[in-house]
Every structure is written in C-alpha cells, then in structure tokens.
User: Fold these one by one.
Assistant:
Number 1:
Amino acid sequence: MTHQYVFRTIILGSAKAGKSSFCKTYAEGYSCVQKEATIGVDFVAKKHQLDDGTIIKVNMWDTAGQEAFRAIIQSYYRDICGALLFFDITDRSSFEKVDFWLKDLRHFNTCKHDHVVILVGNKSDLKDRRVISHNEALTYAKENQLLYVESSCYDVDNIETIMHHFYTSIYAHYCNHENCKGVKTNDENTKSKVFSSLRDSITTREKYRNCC
Ligand SMILES: Nc1nc2c(ncn2[C@@H]2O[C@H](COP(=O)(O)OP(=O)(O)OP(=O)(O)O)[C@@H](O)[C@H]2O)c(=O)[nH]1
Ligand SMILES: [Mg+2]
C-alpha cells in the first residue's frame, strides 16, 4: 500500500492518562492497555486510508507525561501537523494540566499557522469514577478552538474513528497550509532520500579525491 503523504503528529498529556495505551491499541488494532510509564518518547507508525482513497503514513511521537522528561519532549514539538492532548476523565489534575500542554505546544510551534489539536478525555469506560463531565471538557475545548472526543483503550472502534477524524482534519488543514512542516508528500521523501544519497556520494568522492 503506497502512501501519498507522511503526517508527523504528537500525543501529549499528564502521566498515566493513557497515551501509550491509546497509541498501542491504534497501532495493533486490538486493545493493548499498557502498564509501563514511557521513558522520554516512543514512536508509532501506521498507514491510514482516508475517505477519498488517499493513503497517509502517520508517524506519532508518544511522549512521557512525567515532569522529568519535559525538556526532552519540547524538542519533539517541532515540525508536527497535529496533536492529541490527553487527560484522564477520572483525574482532575490531568484535566487542569491541559492548559499547560496547550500553551507549550503553541509556544514551540514552528509553523506560522495553528495545528489541528484534539482534546481527548480518556478512560470513558470508568463511568463511576468520572470527575470531569463531558460538558466541562467540551466548554474548555470550545473556548480554545479544539475538538473534543472521549475514548477508552478497551474500545478499538472508537479509537479508529478518532484517528480517522484526526487525519481527515489534518488533510483538510493541509490544503490551506501547503507548507505545513509536519506534512510531507511521498515525492518529497523520495527526493530528500535521493539528495542525501547524492550528497553522501559527493562527500565520499571528496574524501577520497587525494587518495592514491
Ligand atoms: N480503565 C482504563 N484504564 C486505562 C485506559 N487507558 C490506560 N489505562 C490505564 O492507565 C494507566 C496508564 O496508562 P499509560 O498508557 O501507560 O499512560 P501514559 O499516558 O502513557 O503514561 P506516561 O507514559 O507515564 O505518560 C495504566 O495502568 C493503564 O492500564 C482506559 O482507557 N481505561
Ligand atoms: Mg506512556
């Protein structure tokens, strides 16, 4: 399945909100609830087909929510086209930190335009332990021009729907911002590979020019 575009995206939010479980579940296509905290940054890649048949390759940085990794994570904000901003609907402190992540994301944005950001309230299966209502999260999302969805890492179909919506929005956004640094066409990828191999061969020639 040959892709036409590569989208570089990121997933952010407090520790234990369920970011890695979500990424893994999406990548594998079955529920993969994680137990281990992410150290620094992980990476997920997958191909995805849009409604018009366009195939995109999605590269997603799965970041650690722990404070200790904050400085490392900031370097991954560069050159992305979209972000999933996570909180846990059973944990108010994770919701209160959303504002911090959003400001950080906008501060380090290297494009001139805003990116697609979806606010995700995770662990929707834990209905009895919910402390953030759908309405409260939706109000925050509207005030900050974000889309709002809820997910459970036990519901694979819902995750697939969220990701489809995410990529469709980025694709539509890309039409208006052709120079988004987080979106590359496959041609550009090929071109840059050709250029880098050309560059390598020139460097090698230079290196051995004075050799007997
Ligand atoms: N009930 C329920 N538990 C979940 C869900 N998603 C994740 N969990 C649990 O929440 C805990 C944290 O999940 P992770 O996916 O590691 O969270 P994270 O956001 O990647 O955490 P860091 O890597 O530390 O930033 C784990 O014990 C998971 O089993 C969910 O949708 N429902
Ligand atoms: Mg993680």
Number 2:
Amino acid sequence: MRMALVLMSVVGILIALSSAPAVAGAGPDGKTAGGSTPAVDVGNKICPVTGEKIGSMEHEKATKVEYKGKLYNLCCPMCAAEFKKNPAKYVKVVEKELESSKKKPS
Ligand SMILES: [Zn+2]
C-alpha cells in the first residue's frame, strides 16, 4: 500500500516535470522570459557611416552592430568597424534618420 503511494507521487512528479517545459515554450510571443534581454533592432535603413541605403543589391554584406542594447544596421563590415570607433557620433546619425522617416512617411 505504501509502495503504491510512493509510486503515485513519483509518477505525479514525472508528469509535472515533463509537462512544464511544454507549457513554458508554448507561447513566447512578445518578450522573452529569459535572463538576457536581446538587443533591439533600431530598424534604420540608411548606413550612418556612408549614408547609403542598406539592403540594395550592392550591399549584400549588410551587417549589424550592437551598441548599448540596440542593433544598428550598417551596409558592410567596414562600416561596422568605423561605427565602433565612434559609436556616439553614428548613433546620432541613425536617430536623425529614424526621426525624419517618422515625420514624412513616403
Ligand atoms: Zn558600409
């Protein structure tokens, strides 16, 4: 009788353990519940270093640089290196671009 009770509780724990990850991974839409917060893509379309549009044919090497928890889009790795030399300057350029793109939706 006692053995049966122990078995029952063991089974119960196993069920709880196996169902827990399924529930956690069920709907992670929105913010991730993990410890580290992923960097947010600022979504700029113009490389702040060269001032060129990112994503056109000649910019297949488009890359992203993380700075202060944000991802900045750059047209090539060379610009990424340049960005890292003077991030504050280029962040301002990106912010200007984002602001002007908000004001006049083409
Ligand atoms: Zn570039």
